[in-house]
Design a protein that fits this description.
The complex is a heterodimer. By secondary structure, chain A is mainly beta. Chain A is 0% helix and 55% strand. Chain B is mainly beta. In chain B, a hairpin with a 5-residue loop joins strand 4 and strand 5. Classes of the chains: A mainly beta, B mainly beta.
């Protein structure tokens, strides 16, 4: 079945450093979503990317969708302790004109040292 | 407006016991989902209900059954629990299963049920 590969699995940064997590698919995605899960919490939707080459920003977070729609990244500038958590990408593919289910990556767990 | 609620929050079962996890949403969403989350494995879809009256298997349906009781409620049943079903279970809902133009609808997750099977 389809899958999205997400790297790195863990990232430890000093507060103020930047952070990036990457997602890759071997085949063209229809769209990709990003979620954040705080420790002990539940996933919370951050954003969806649909268009080739799309770039969206939310304050210190920058989301990109590759030109070929096979990869995506989430970049956090100047991390803060509030950024701690696990970041998941979730992709879906078109099957004969119908949308498939979201398939989640395994997540990148971010820890931030004050 | 509670969003998505799940009961119970925690449960310990012995192998072979059965139980039902309850999920309800008050956002008038059409679609609902059950996921399991295991360490290092991300979220895997067990079953989903694209609309009231329909249910379909996801990635890991074996050992589970579901019921879409009405538009608000979607339950997950373990008929004979196994240690491999020890996990955190999340229910989610979305306005519609899939959108137009290649988009999806964002999913709203409940707080989760932490299940241990001994």
């Amino acid at each position: 079945g389809q899958q999205v590969m997400q790297i790195p699995q863990y990232q430890h940064v000093q507060e103020g450093e930047d952070f990036t997590t990457y997602c890759n698919s071997s085949t063209t995605l229809s769209n990709i979503q990003w979620y954040k899960q705080r420790p002990g919490g539940h996933p919370v939707f951050l954003i969806q990317l649909v268009k080739s080459g799309e770039v969206k920003k939310q304050k210190r977070l920058t989301f990109q969708f590759g030109e070929a729609k096979k990869n995506s990244s989430l970049h956090i500038t100047a991390t803060q302790t509030t950024d701690v958590g696990t970041y998941f990408c979730a992709g879906s593919w078109n099957y004969g004109g119908s949308q498939g289910n979201l398939i989640f990556g395994k997540g990148t767990k971010l820890s931030v040292k004050p | 407006n509670a969003g998505v609620t799940q009961t119970p929050k925690f449960q310990v079962l012995k192998t072979g016991q059965s139980m039902t996890l309850q999920c309800a949403q008050d956002m008038n969403h059409n679609s609902m989902y059950w996921y399991r989350q295991d360490p290092g494995m991300g979220l895997r879809l067990i079953y989903y209900s694209a609309s009231e009256g329909t249910t379909d298997k996801g990635e890991v349906p074996n050992g589970y059954n579901v019921s879409r009781l009405n538009k608000r409620e979607f339950s997950l049943r373990l008929e004979s629990a196994a240690p491999s079903q020890t996990s955190v279970y999340f229910c989610a809902s979305s306005e519609v299963y899939a959108g137009s133009g290649g988009s999806q609808y964002e999913q709203y997750f409940g707080p989760g049920t932490r299940l241990t099977v001994t």
